[in-house]
Specification:
The protein is α+β, with helices and mostly antiparallel strands. It has three helices and eleven strands, in the order H-E-E-E-E-E-H-E-E-E-E-H-E-E.
């Protein structure tokens, strides 16, 4: 019984190459600690909108403030995608518009096609799970204040 042959080795090599193409090398992104014990990360959006985003694994969506979202819409960097009923942290429900963000940068990573919502003028900008998922596997280092990621290419 043969467990390995040349024909299968080409398939295995293709899978290994695909894995290297799907993810870049690991990157470390500096986190900014807040006095509340939470962390923020610098995010950039075209055409030159820079925000400090709360890293929030409890948020399904990335959240932007209405002014930044309006600038992105005016620049053609985002489009309205759909409306949903969102459940807030306190259990209440709210109608929210979901937008398709063409590109955003978090550290060295470029994220494309991220969905974002705006919850009002007083909402904290958030890097939600939908964006964190696009960073591949990630970990938070609380001592060195680093977000370690594997950026998808």
């Amino acid at each position: 019984m043969k467990l390995f042959n040349l024909r299968n080795s080409k398939s295995i090599l293709g899978i290994v190459i695909l894995c290297f193409v799907a993810y870049a090398d690991a990157a470390s992104i500096r986190l900014q600690p807040a006095s509340s014990g939470t962390f923020y990360v610098a995010g950039s959006f075209s055409p030159s909108i820079n925000l400090n985003l709360l890293v929030d694994t409890g948020s399904s969506f990335t959240i932007l403030d209405p002014d930044s979202l309006a600038q992105l819409v005016a620049a053609g960097s985002t489009t309205h995608k759909r409306d949903i009923v969102g459940t807030m942290a306190d259990g209440s429900e709210r109608n929210v518009a979901v937008y398709h963000i063409k590109e955003m940068w978090v550290g060295e990573c470029i994220l494309q096609g991220i969905e974002a919502v705006s919850l009002g003028p007083n909402a904290t900008p958030v890097l939600g799970m939908n964006a964190l998922r696009e960073l591949g596997s990630f970990s938070l280092d609380f001592e060195s204040h680093q977000l370690s990621v594997n950026c998808r290419i």
